[in-house]
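Standup, Tuesday
Yesterday: got the pipeline producing structure tokens again.
Today: sanity-check two examples.
Blockers: none.

Example 1:
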Amino acid sequence: MKDLGARVKRKREQYDLTQEALAGRVGCSRIMIVYIESGEKIPSLALTRKLAKALNYSLDELVNGEVRV
């Protein structure tokens, strides 16, 4: 799941969001974003859905990586 954290960080930085700003959008603490991005914690499904929406990812793209066709 470390890849999930890397995807969250990459998209967050792409949108020029701070960890604090992303946390506010999804309703969690900044430290939770730190843990997710570092791979120390795996977010719940509900939080993963909120992260996907906030970062303009599909749930599948966020969890499994970029969709290749």
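Example 2:
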Amino acid sequence: MIFVTVGTHEQQFNRLVQCVDELREKQVITEDVVIQTGFSTYEPKSCGWSNFYPYQRMLEYVKEARIVITHGGPASFIMPLQVGKIPIVVPRKKEFSEHINDHQVNFCRTVAERQGNILVVENISKLSETIARYDNIIAAMSVEMKSNNVRFCSKLDGLVKSLF
């Protein structure tokens, strides 16, 4: 099963929803697909879908899915990482009226470069190829989430102690 989430941002993400639906309709994707469509206006014809799912149901879909495809919002792509899955991330773009600017594009590029644990697909025409090659691509990737929390807390602790 493939699970797709576009998050809760109030602008549509028809480009992703329609692309996945058409890939399923053409049998490029042969497995079941469930899409959380958010505020998108396109209604899938070949996939299960709902505008929104409760958090627990989203988590169940993420756990059940072989592939999780998300928009570029951090909460959406961190969820699959937390359950040990490498997400395919399609950032929303201003040029398609999917967001107010291209911060998702820039943020996703940075995360991919620094963390190496998300697959960023900026050009929607490359999504089918990424899905087809998914298992081979992720074989060499780590789902480990690198964190600077310990270092940050240590430096903060030192700073606070120096003040007293």
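Quick observation on example 2: The helical segments are 14-25, 55-64, 74-82, 103-115, 127-132, 134-138, 149-163. The first helix runs from residue 14 to 25.
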